[in-house]
Amino acid sequence: MPRVAILYCKRIKDFSCIACAKCYKAMAEKDGEFAKYDEVELVAMTDCGDCPGLAFPKVKLLTEVTNNLERPIETLHLGTCVKLAMETADCPIDFDELKILLENKFGINVVLGTHNY
Ligand code: SF4
Ligand code: SF4
Question: CA–CA distance from 36 to each of 12, 67, 111, 113 (Å)?
Fold first, then answer.
């Protein structure tokens, strides 16, 4: 079962996207970016580290914690909220650059997006 973690936009979660209910639904129904998995084991969900683009140190800490708990992350999803922040606001994350950095440094797969709602 793939061990997945989700990073959400600190500025959007619980303001315009409440309680991550949409991502939990998509995981349960294997919708959106979760459609490719037979089952998903969510090992962690946390914020992006906040503006101005502090995702790398946040993921460093996240991988240390999950590795110490012997539940290492295989795939990290940047939530649809992060995608929206990049497309419609001034989110400083450059996904292509961040994906390469995180995959090379931490040996995880990095995917942009979660649900389609
Ligand atoms: S898109 Fe997903 S991760 Fe982001 S706030 Fe909404 S439910 Fe949570
Ligand atoms: S706008 Fe981007 S960097 Fe800022 S909190 Fe949201 S996802 Fe994180």
Answer: 26, 24, 12, 13
Ligand 1 centroid distance, CA of 107 (Å): 24
> Is the overall model pTM greater than 0.85, yes or no?
yes
Over its length of 117 residues, how does the chain's per-residue pLDDT go in tens digits? 899 999 999 999 999 999 999 999 999 999 999 999 999 999 999 999 999 989 999 999 999 999 999 999 999 999 999 999 999 999 999 999 999 999 999 999 999 999 998
CA–centroid distance, residue 54 to ligand 2 (Å): 8
The number of the ligand nearest the C-alpha atom of 98 reads 2
Question: Ligand 2 pocket, 17 CB below 6 A?
Answer: no
- Which two tokens mark 41? 């084991």
